[in-house]
Design a protein that fits this description.
Length: 494
């Protein structure tokens, strides 16, 4: 699509100078792709400096692990997940649109709705988690400092305010999110350094829960922590990375720089806050809850920094997630503009926040959520990456937009818009992943075959890769006859 083309459905048509991002899931013209690799590092680092990410560092402690096994499980899971997820940033770097739309090159222009739904669910859950934990970091310090209510009324008001601020940031879009992430990253790194000092006198490496390991023995519990606390971090980005790499021009930067920036941003952006969460969980002896003991154990002088992170860290991270939700819903329902889709998904996320506080058990809900979505998200990521390799990174940007224009045809039309081979492989991989997952709310029957160790991620990835490669034998990946912005798909208006 050229800059002179009519604005398609799903594109915000606000003037460039208004400050509100004008792009939805359309193909961004190269003239607007002004991002840099360091912007990717900044947004991955800054957007994760919040309690919604820090709390994952508490999960190993809540599982009954001691400090050092908690640390090793998170590092192992984060590095393993990054190896799979980071290459996904290269897909949108080549296509100029978000990842779920880009996956249409492999799944078909309608089959890519699988990625849109997964992305929407992932962002929806993580956004709710971010506001939920951030709200506790606001209400707790305000209660200790000024005696404000710390019950249902206080949380209800705080959640509402944080949700409204998050959606406003998300509406403005890419540029504001990028700028804000850099400031949040700098400020929160200082806060965490101060936090190490604040809690160091109370730190102990011994387990914080009574009754031993959650799953009965060390290795199965360590494996659960590797998946739930470590691997789940990178997996949360399987549909988000393209939201920012699409703004970097392949005419000015190489794929190697984008990949390196993504790896650096993910590893630092996840491990720094999560390891801080582990340290403070053991220092505050947080067993059944994290934020409450964290606030209670904080010195008075640290309450204000904690409050500031509760506000700015929350709206920064939640803003990123709400922004991504808006793009995914925009991709699912093209007649919606990005702004309208963002407001709607923000309302859904806020409902989940209140349910998380008033209805659900926090630890069980969070753990089950990340494991189940990892089980169905991993196969999608594997197939998308195999498709990227098979087409050697060459896509037809115009053909990827067929569904958004409510058209038909193009090289990614496959069978009525679906690549049935990819869809079947995804279903097989997801089924194996779900059947081998182990949570407090659901235990898959295959867990007995893996000696009680949750290998859902590895089994889902391996099953998907084998199934898709076998199903695709003799079926080449569609490739444009010409590459570059001049490539046009042969689509027929419905």
């Amino acid at each position: 699509m050229t800059p002179e083309s009519p604005t398609p459905t799903g594109v915000d048509s606000a003037p460039r100078g208004s400050g509100i991002e004008k792009h939805g899931v359309d193909t961004i013209p190269d003239s607007d792709r002004t991002g840099r690799p360091r912007d990717i590092v900044g947004i991955l680092l800054g957007s994760n400096m919040c309690l919604g990410v820090v709390i994952f560092g508490w999960l190993p402690a809540s599982f009954g692990l001691e400090f050092w096994p908690s640390v090793t499980s998170m590092i192992a899971g984060t590095l393993l997940g990054t190896l799979l997820v980071a290459p996904l940033s290269l897909v949108s770097f080549r296509t100029g649109t978000n990842l779920s739309t880009s996956s249409g090159g492999t799944f078909g222009v309608r089959g890519r709705l699988i990625g849109s739904v997964i992305g929407l669910l992932l962002s929806l859950g993580y956004a709710a988690l971010t506001v939920w934990t951030g709200g506790a970091a606001v209400v707790g310090p305000l209660h200790r400092l000024f005696g404000l209510p710390d019950g249902g009324v206080g949380y209800t008001v705080t959640y509402g305010v944080l949700s409204v601020l998050s959606v406003l940031i998300a509406i403005y879009g890419y540029r504001l999110l990028t700028t804000m992430s850099k400031w949040v990253a700098a400020g929160t790194l200082v806060l965490m350094a101060a936090g190490v000092l604040a809690y160091s006198g109370q730190f102990s490496t011994g387990p914080v829960v009574e009754g031993g390991y959650l799953l009965g023995d060390f290795w199965t519990t360590w494996a659960l922590s590797t998946v739930a606390a470590g691997l789940s971090g990178p997996m949360a980005f399987i549909t988000l990375l393209g939201d920012y790499s699409r703004y970097v021009s392949p005419k000015r930067y190489s794929s190697g720089k984008i990949f390196a920036a993504t790896v650096a941003g993910m590893v630092m952006g996840l491990l720094i806050p999560q390891l801080f969460g582990t340290f403070t969980a053991f220092a505050s002896r947080a067993a059944d809850d994290y934020v409450g003991p964290l606030v209670a154990a904080a010195p008075v002088w640290f309450l204000l920094p904690l409050l500031l992170n509760g506000v700015f860290g929350t709206i920064g991270n939640a803003g990123i997630l709400v922004y991504s939700m808006g793009l995914d819903l925009d991709a699912i329902v093209p007649p919606l503009s990005r702004v309208k889709a963002t407001v709607l998904t923000s309302a859904l996320s806020t409902v989940l926040v209140y349910l998380g506080y008033f209805v659900w058990d926090a630890q069980d809900a969070v753990t089950a959520f990340v494991l189940l979505l990892t089980a169905i998200g991993t196969p999608w990521a594997v197939i998308t990456l195999i498709g990227f390799v098979r087409c050697r990174g060459h896509y037809d940007p115009d053909a990827l937009q067929v569904y958004n224009r409510r058209s038909r045809g193009g090289i990614y039309w496959y069978t009525a818009g679906w690549n049935l081979r990819a869809a079947v492989a995804w279903m097989l991989g997801s089924a194996v992943g779900l059947l081998s997952v182990d949570t407090a709310l659901f235990k898959g029957p295959l867990i007995e075959w893996t000696y009680g160790i949750d290998l859902s991620f590895l089994l889902a990835a391996a099953t998907t890769a084998v199934a898709y490669l076998l199903l695709s034998l003799g079926s080449p990946q569609p490739m444009p006859t010409r590459t570059g912005p001049e490539t046009q798909a042969q689509a027929v208006r419905a």
